[in-house]
Amino acid sequence: MKELVEVIAKALVTNPDAVVVTETVTERETVLTLTVDPADMGKVIGKQGRIAKAIRTVLKAEAVREDKRVSLDIG
User: In this structure, what DSSP letter does residue 68 have?
Assistant: First the structure.
């Protein structure tokens, strides 16, 4: 799932080399943290958070297929 978020984010931003996704696994869930260049933050979040919400929706769909709990933090 880390790769999924990475591919989506790299397609959205101007500076794809600055995209970093870190994965933290706990007993209950997996937390993915997406970090991008500050200039690209608006492109990843989108107007009123629509793009961020869409990324989270795709991620949740993949998590359901794998029977896991996943959350995405953008920072």
Answer: -
- Distance separating alpha carbons of residues 34 and 27, to the nearest angstrom: 21
Of the candidate CATH numbers 3.30.300.20, 3.30.450.20, 3.40.1050.10, 3.20.20.70, the domain formed by 2-74 belongs to 3.30.300.20
The pTM of the full predicted model, rounded to 2 decimals, is 0.89
Q: What is the pLDDT of residues 4-42, one digit of tens each?
A: 999 999 999 999 999 999 999 998 999 999 999 999 999
Within 10 Å of residue 65's Cβ, how many Cβ atoms? 9
Instruction: Find, among 7, 59, 54, the residue nearest to 68 by Cα.
Output: 59
